[in-house]
Amino acid sequence: MTFNPFRKTVLRSVLLLLLVLGGCAGQEIRQPKESVKTDPELAAKFEKEGRTAFEEGRKGTAVKAWKKAVELDPTHAVTVNNLALVLKDQHRFAEAAKLLEAGLVHSPDVAELHFNLAVIAELYLLDLETALVHYNRYRELTEEDDQQVAGWIADLERRLE
């Protein structure tokens, strides 16, 4: 076999190109996302837009508006709850539960958030332990003798034994 300097140079160049391209195909370096600043006034506008859309039967538009509202003001429990209920109706149970959990970080004493998280956890996610925790918290917060919820709690306790 004869030595061909041109062929050796071409092979070296191709190898170098493959190494460079391989480096370009590596993992992306991600910059941290900018945190969204809260803006309760703008959030209120999106909340109203979502409520109007919901009342007109435009649930997709309501979800989009309420998501923006929650992003701008995650402390507004009514918007969090409304959005979670629409997500539940759209069979987006895990997303609804996650939203309610985030809402409870900001509003831990809002009974309706606990109740709806308990229902979604029990009936749709089959997370009985989470359901029991939130039914109990709901009952503590409402201080009512709700026999239906008491029955659900007793049933969950039996099922978890």
TrEMBL record:
Superkingdom of source: Bacteria
Keyword field: Signal, TPR repeat
InterPro entries the UniProt entry points to: TPR-like_helical_dom_sf, TPR_rpt
TM segment ranges: none
Signal peptide: 1-25
Organism lineage: Bacteria, Pseudomonadati, Pseudomonadota, Gammaproteobacteria, Pseudomonadales
Name recorded for this polypeptide: Tetratricopeptide repeat protein
UniProt entry tagged with the keyword Magnesium: no
Gene3D superfamilies membership: Tetratricopeptide repeat domain
SUPFAM superfamilies recorded: TPR-like
Coiled-coil region: none
Intervals holding TPR repeats: 43-76
